[in-house]
Amino acid sequence: MPRPQAAFFDLDKTIIAKSSTLAFSREFQAGGLISRRAMLRSAYAQFVFFTGGADHDQMDKMREFMSQLCAGWDVATVRDIVHETLTTIVEPLVYDEAVTLIEEHRAAGRDIVIVSASGVEVVEPIGEMLGADRVIATRMEIADGKYTGNIDYYAYAEEKARAIEHLAATVGYDLDECYAYSDSVTDVHMLEVVGHPFAVNPDRELRRVATANGWPVLLFVRPVALRRRLVVPAARPTLAALAVGGAVAAGGILWSNRRKRITGA
Q1: Is the pLDDT of residue 36 over 70?
Q2: Catalytic residue among 12, 111, 187, 203
Q3: What per-residue confidence (pLDDT) applies to 229?
Q4: Catalytic residue list contains 74
Q5: DSSP assignment, residue 74?
Q6: Active-site residue flag, 12
Q7: Coil, strand or helix at 251
Q8: pLDDT (tens digit, 9 = 90+) per residue, 58-107?
Q9: How far apart are alpha carbons 216 and 97 in whole angstroms?
């Protein structure tokens, strides 16, 4: 029997046209979680992220800003805001080309795995909306139902590659036959661990790496309302943690309780 395969997708600027976390700034302000000044700072961070591509230093600053910003936030409130506003905030930002790719990989029998440095509270419901099988995402430390401002697990750069390799060892993915898509040079390690890497809307450095390695470059330019393209999955059981040991388990590799049979393509 052929081994199962997967398509690994970065989220921001690969599947959706914005930073998934910063897209909720206005809603977090309306919910009383952040000040207007903090919202403006997050809007500026969104601008930098979108126009220039985020390098390691920018991502570190963004991570520090977001972790400090959410200290003391009520976890249940954040999850409620994300779920209540998901369709109006994120759904219209999904790239039409990404939806097509997801459909093609699913038709070929591959799992769809979203791998993102954004928080699991944001990434998990987006994954459910897209019908993803598994999600790898950053996890914030929680105490007494509130975020402490510390990060338990940061799904970023080399850690994305390590998480994919752990997941492949657990599920049995044949990484040589798997696919990966990302826009950022910070995800080079993630692209290198699969047999079919693709640069999507690449920043300057990733384009240079893709050209040197002969990786295909894809341009996604058409954000579309998701409901126009496919039937948005009905609410499913909450994605559950995949216990593979070490930091990866604590870090939030998630998968649907729904089991399906995987066939090779």
Answers
A1: no
A2: 12
A3: 60
A4: no
A5: B
A6: yes
A7: helix
A8: 666 666 666 776 778 888 888 887 877 777 777 778 899 999 999 999 99
A9: 15
